[in-house]
């Protein structure tokens, strides 16, 4: 008689134990359900939550074309040489029409496909601001509970203004490309204050030395309190692996620095609070949004109201918003 395959709906305790035991198939099933929005995942994630919090989460961000995926692949190799297991969450741009994505990041990391100590998951951003999929954080929780030592998160390379990645990772590396002026752009966008490491990738291109000097100067100008981490600037060529061993060591140095100075624990506490806030807002909006849509549709039901909206949508929207806000206390929205 064939062995029964645990199902996320009918056998959550079995599935939970398999995930805690590091079962790749069980972890992949849960992540698929997370991406699909299966309501059963919330309870399972709640059961996994007490078992997480041990992984070191690294973020690799930067503009498109910086070679982030190739760099992550090289970092995986270096961390595996140090006997760390590695999970990767790579978020790709998605279609505004279908929500689908090419998921090319995973393709560029295929060299690790046969390594049992590596788990790579690509997912579509699905239009979420900040370059992260909504499921990215929960996927990190699953990988953490599965026992992966290091989790690397690659958000969409959507520029340098999005800082949502800082609410998820413990150490953030910003990748710059020689000759593009990314060092200056980092200051304008605020990532100079957010990044823990600066990486000049593709250092075989003209202008790499100049980019290094610019970033080093900018970091030195950063106002730092005593006993504060001084972000280093690393030079790498992900294609050849040059400098990636030092980069891996720098990330581990940052982790040790945070542990020694009680920064890591505080960061984890703050991030847990931020995510709880996000969860509450998301759960409330999941209930409110359909109700608001119904109210707007009903409001536009007459030609007279449509004409009023056409004439001055701002005034009419304000009046309707005021009315709906007042009624929220009395209406059943779920």
Structure characterization notes:
By secondary structure, the protein is α/β, with parallel strands linked by helices. The protein folds into three domains: 1-51, no CATH class; 53-261, 3-Layer(aba) Sandwich (Rossmann fold); 275-327. It is built from 13 helices and seven strands. Strand 6, helix 9 and strand 7 form a beta-alpha-beta unit. Helix 2 (24-36) runs antiparallel to helix 6 (136-146), helix 4 (68-81) packs across helix 10 and helix 7 packs parallel to helix 9. It is globular and about 70 Å long.
Compact overview of the structure:
By secondary structure, this protein is of the alpha/beta class.
Amino- and carboxy-terminal Cα gap: 44 Å
**Uncertain stretches:** 1-6, 94-102
* CATH classification class of the largest domain: Alpha Beta
CATH architectural group of the largest domain = 3-Layer(aba) Sandwich
What does the radius of gyration come to?
23 Å
CATH topology of the largest domain: Rossmann fold
The proportion of residues in beta strands is 5-15%
Global morphology? globular
By DSSP (H or I, 4+ residues per run), the number of helices equals 13
In order across it, which strands form the biggest sheet? 3-2-4-1-5-6-7
């Amino acid at each position: 008689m064939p062995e029964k395959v645990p199902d996320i709906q009918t056998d959550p305790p079995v599935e939970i134990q398999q995930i805690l035991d590091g079962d790749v198939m069980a972890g992949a099933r849960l992540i698929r359900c997370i991406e699909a929005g299966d309501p059963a995942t919330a309870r399972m994630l709640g059961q996994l939550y007490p078992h997480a919090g041990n992984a070191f989460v690294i973020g690799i961000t930067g503009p498109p074309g910086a070679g982030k995926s190739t760099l992550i692949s090289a970092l995986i190799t270096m961390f595996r040489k140090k006997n760390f297991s590695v999970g990767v969450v790579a978020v790709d741009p998605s279609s505004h029409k279908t929500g689908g994505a090419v998921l090319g990041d995973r393709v560029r990391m295929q060299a690790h496909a046969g390594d049992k100590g590596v788990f790579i998951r690509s997912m579509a951003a699905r239009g979420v601001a900040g370059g992260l999929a909504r499921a990215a954080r929960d996927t990190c929780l699953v990988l953490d509970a599965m026992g992966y030592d290091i989790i690397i998160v690659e958000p969409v390379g959507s520029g340098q203004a999005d800082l949502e990645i800082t609410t998820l990772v413990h150490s953030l590396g910003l990748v710059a490309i020689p000759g593009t002026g990314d060092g200056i752009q980092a200051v304008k966008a605020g990532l100079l204050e957010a990044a823990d490491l600066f990486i000049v990738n593709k250092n075989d291109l003209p202008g790499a030395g100049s980019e290094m000097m610019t970033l080093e100067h900018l970091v030195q100008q950063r106002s730092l309190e005593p006993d504060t981490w001084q972000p280093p600037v690393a030079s790498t060529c992900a294609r050849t692996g040059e400098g990636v061993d030092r980069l891996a060591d720098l990330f581990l140095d940052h982790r040790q620095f945070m542990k020694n100075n009680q920064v890591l624990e505080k960061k984890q506490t703050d991030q847990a609070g931020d995510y709880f806030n996000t969860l509450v807002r998301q759960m409330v909006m999941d209930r409110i949004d359909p109700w608001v849509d119904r109210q707007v549709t009903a409001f536009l039901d007459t030609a007279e109201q449509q004409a009023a909206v056409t004439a001055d949508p701002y005034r009419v929207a304000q009046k309707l918003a005021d009315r709906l806000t007042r009624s929220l206390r009395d209406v059943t929205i779920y």
